Amino acid sequence: MYLIGIxxxxxxxxxxxxxxxxxxxxxxxxxxxxRIEKWISIRQDAGIVPDCVLLDIGLPGxxxxxxxSIISSYYPGVKILVISGMEDPLIAWQAMMNxxxxxxxxxxxxxxxxxxxEILKSGGTVLDPExxxxxxxxxxxxxxxxxxxxxxxxFGLTQREIQVAELLVAGSSYKEISTxxxxxxxxxxxxxxxxxxxxxxxxxxxxxxxxxxxx
Amino acid sequence: MYLIGIxxxxxxxxxxxxxxxxxxxxxxxxxxxxRIEKWISIRQDAGIVPDCVLLDIGLPGxxxxxxxSIISSYYPGVKILVISGMEDPLIAWQAMMNxxxxxxxxxxxxxxxxxxxEILKSGGTVLDPExxxxxxxxxxxxxxxxxxxxxxxxFGLTQREIQVAELLVAGSSYKEISTxxxxxxxxxxxxxxxxxxxxxxxxxxxxxxxxxxxx
DNA sequence: ATGGGTATCCCTAGTTTAAGGGAAAATACG
DNA sequence: CGTATTTTCCCTTAAACTAGGGATACCCAT
Lengths: 215, 215
Hints:
Two copies of one chain form a homodimer.
Chain A: E1 2-7, H1 11-23, E2 27-33, H2 36-46, E3 52-56, H3 64-74, E4 79-84, H4 89-98, E5 102-105, H5 110-121, H6 129-142, H7 159-170, H8 174-181, H9 185-199, H10 204-211
Parallel strand pairs in A: 1-2, 1-3, 3-4, 4-5
Helix pairs in contact in A: 3-4, 4-6, 7-9, 8-9
The structure holds a DNA duplex (30 and 30 nucleotides).
């Protein structure tokens, strides 16, 4: 039996979810309220610890975002399925970083909700593709990683030089590059000499640091 | 018409995918090869720019991880669907941060692959629930820790070795490191020998890719 | 058709890195 | 106290990289 808790201020939706869960053979509702504050005041009376909490993020009062860490520290190991009306990548990101296990975008079908609960139950994490895209993009900017940086064109490298540069940065030796590109060792050496001149470096390390944007 | 490229070293799987894509009315294969190196050497001859590249991450030679940024800078706007045999959260994380748009865990059904391609086509991002869980956990650890200084510690490097490693990655030569740390050249050489043993690499490039790639 | 850019090839010399061997202190820990 | 770890130092060989020189051929544009 999978125990579910609900925190959702939309009365209509909450009733619908309550009803749906009650109808499931393998699920049971342990609490259902409209606000975080309400949950905080009744949680010790409710007694039973839920396996999964369906949490609306757009609540009045205490933010659902803050609620995530509150709830997961109160119920260690609980799965939190965030419900949101807005498709905001930043909110999704923050929710996931705060400990959410899934993200459900309103409006959703109850079958979809159930499916997500199932996946959470088995330790998985689910986001819809659009939210996922936004979340990954947010993560990329957060971590300043190079998503699609054109690292070589800006230095005026030729096509061939770009090929050589890519292989060099990826870790291939001159000899390996010559084999891959079907040219002699000296040709590779020649290209690299020209690359270094254009990029104004005089060693492989300097080149790597340059194209990695480290200076 | 959606144009697909394949980089996969498993001949059986590659042929299967090629065949499947050829049979789809709305897809067309623009290239198919077994290694990154091969793609780098033939890409300008292939001519047509794909909309989506199916990329095996567990390739011999240049890592598929490195390939992601190379491919996405060569084909701006391309969607990259990473195929992996291992369920490694770190790899998934790194792949997504490098610009991947989806993650497909081997073995997979071709219908599943097609579904992911469809979602990528519409700008979405897909990961299976298990990989997603690992990825989010990795992100949480990254997000909640500084994540810059302790990247060498996990390999069991000593304090001195960490100093040497940092200088090495920063671009210092053995000689420069010896001056900075006030030790002899041979001592630096010695430390680096030990570092490489611990990290299980045998060249500076491999070391750099290891420490700046997976952590 | 002359000159510039690209791409190929060769030789040579010097520097840097990689990895094998061995060895001596200092420090930490049970 | 003895043992393991850390840090230091040396020699040697092989491989890889850097950089100078020069050379041929193709394409493209002035």
